[in-house]
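re: ur question from earlier - yeah i can do the single chain one, its not a big deal. heres the input i used so u can compare w yours
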Amino acid sequence: MSAMSYFNPATQGPADRSGVLVVGLGRFGEALARGLVEQGIEVLAVDFDVDIVQRLSGELPNVVQLDGTSVRALRQVGAEQFTRAVVAIASNIEASVLSALTLLDDLKIQTVWAKAISLEHAKILERVGVQRVIQPEHDMGVRTARSLARRVTDYFAVEDDFALVEMEAPRQYVGRPLGESGIRAKYGVTIVSMKSPGGVFHHVDQSTILNAGDLILLAGSPASLDKFVAES
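and the output i got, formated as tokens:
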């Protein structure tokens, strides 16, 4: 392992076991690590590039320069204490796969996710045991296509039978309490939150009254959501 390290495993306590190991600090890995830290989650971030580690050393609490495919290097920084890890290496498919195998087979990390840059890369990662493969560009393209096709502002598929839709409040449901709308009974979808223009999303209840221009977030099956959108 390189001598360049901004992490001292001796100072870390049991809470690390609920943290996340991030291997690779390109744009995706850096954004992931920052987002986790902002949410108060312990993160150990590693990358082979000295310049990247130096740049992030004052911004991420625990960042180390090492080879993410090396069992010895990862053990030296206590990587095996983590139960969750994300392989964010994308520029080198071989290194990505080797890192995933190292985390799964050698360090026995329970949950490993990984970023893929192609469908072929994704298939390889899935075959070696990665539980979830992320394709940022592909996933965003599909998400945008679904939003456009359904005439909504955003569409997110959680599972095959469950999705979330963000859209402007339909005119026919504006000005009266949601409890009187009959949306759930008629369509099998639920309005879970709403946001006024310039405001933030907040939970709704039966007494909530929507106004023109409000955004609503609905949950339900894709088929049910499609029917609601088509008839709204």
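The domain at 140-231 is CATH 3.30.70.1450 (Alpha-Beta Plaits). not sure if urs matches, ping me
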